[in-house]
Design goal:
The structure is a homodimer. By secondary structure, chain A is α/β, with parallel strands linked by helices. Chain A is 32% helix and 18% strand. In chain A, the strands form 2 sheets. The first copy, chain A, has a 6-stranded parallel β-sheet. In chain A, strands 1-4-3-5-2 form a 5-stranded mixed β-sheet, sandwiched between helices. In chain A, helix 3 packs parallel to helix 4. The interface between A and B is medium-sized, with 35 and 34 residues.
């Protein structure tokens, strides 16, 4: 018989709630998985769960967890909300071990170099999945494992290879490094190596040092206002341009 | 000497705050303009302001308002927050007349046909600006003039022609209607007319009737999981494909 937690001040609930913060995730190596879709994706990917909380009515989740041998703790709506990042969470709200970063793989990879918005970061991970790319981020980018980024990633965090790199210089040995710039770059280029595509911050784009270090520059041709694309859309178009270049 | 409002329950403040809701905007024909960047874009576009609230304005914004003959009402932080859609608003928070919808122009146009997320809708407007397209939406799409959509639109609501259409059938007389579909469409097509590109809902894509009525179907080639692109990214890639097709 599963436990039932009825107090939002229970230690287990507090521990899960702390995973909404960068500090909480760094201290534990765990991440917050919220809602049936992310939970399904995480279970399929074999994540190791620590705590899975659900209200009583959620049969699909109970069955999915049972099949995977994951224990579910029944909680009240109030407790579920206390554990969650959102006001009206859907079951389950869970704590799982964060997947270990992979080494930079010998394939096309999009590199978040200063991306600050969690929604943009998650959207880029989702786009990378669609085009069969890997993802890397530098320390000046937003944490890729926040609840907001996981939501925007739509479950693809668990299928896309995600690397953490200290410095983009390390990419030069294995990849053709391509910097996305608002003007002055090309639309096609020839390479027989995988591409590392650098995308920068919402406010400032890529740092000049990253542009200078790149093997080539990519610019999306825009007849309208040239500074008006959001970084997630720009990354999407750039991945398409590189992937589907003829 | 400008008025000073210190009570969040002041009628003017309540009237501005109501513009965060669809109901409030429909009842008045006004929209909520928040923060210096949207305010600058709206002033440049010649919007007619009803109320402009600010705690403190940088000189540029003061001059901008004065030059445009716009009166600014000084308020407390508490009052500004009461008028605003966000918890910590930046000045100014303003009410302005919503720009009138334009007739569908004889140029490329992206048609939001069921887009539900305000952030996606605003991002698509921003992308349309970058590629020099117009925007239209059908009644089943989210209101394009909510504070969230305006934020994601980054000021381009005021430069992009925005039409409202009851039915996509009306486009056939003037445009080549192109439906974005996850599979089965082409990547190139020939037309000597402007394109009306239909994009659908986050959950369900385009309705079958819209796909059936289209002149041609567009599919973004994706080596990865074919159902994994967000609608704002998919629209961005599709606008690029149509605009920059060789």
């Amino acid at each position: 018989v599963a436990d039932v937690i009825t107090s939002p001040r229970n230690d287990t609930i507090r521990a899960v709630a702390r995973l909404a913060t960068v500090k909480g995730r760094r201290a534990t190596g765990h991440i917050l998985i919220e809602g049936p879709n992310l939970f399904e994706a995480a279970v399929k990917a074999g994540l190791v769960f620590d705590t899975v909380l659900a209200t009583q009515l959620d049969r699909t989740t109970q069955q999915r967890a049972a099949t995977a041998g994951i224990e579910v703790t029944t909680v009240t709506d109030e407790v579920l909300a206390a554990a969650s990042d959102v006001v009206n969470p859907r079951s389950p709200v869970a704590s799982a071990e964060r997947p270990a970063p992979v080494a930079v793989p010998p394939r096309n990879i999009v590199v978040l170099h200063g991306v600050a918005d969690p929604g943009n970061a998650g959207t880029i991970i989702r786009t990378a999945a669609a085009f069969g790319w890997a993802v890397a981020s530098t320390p000046d980018s937003v944490d890729l494992w926040s609840p907001k980024t996981l939501r925007a990633g739509a479950g693809y965090h668990f299928t896309v290879p995600i690397a953490a790199i200290d410095d983009i210089a390390s990419l030069a040995a294995t990849h053709t490094v391509l910097a996305t710039v608002p003007r002055g770059g090309g639309v096609t280029f020839a390479t027989d190596r995988p591409v590392a595509l650098l995308v920068g911050s919402e406010a400032h784009g890529l740092p000049a040092s990253a542009v200078a270090a790149a093997d080539a520059l990519l610019t999306i041709p825009m007849p309208g206002d040239v500074e008006s694309l959001g970084v997630a859309v720009a990354a999407g178009i750039a991945l398409h341009m590189v992937t589907n270049a003829t």
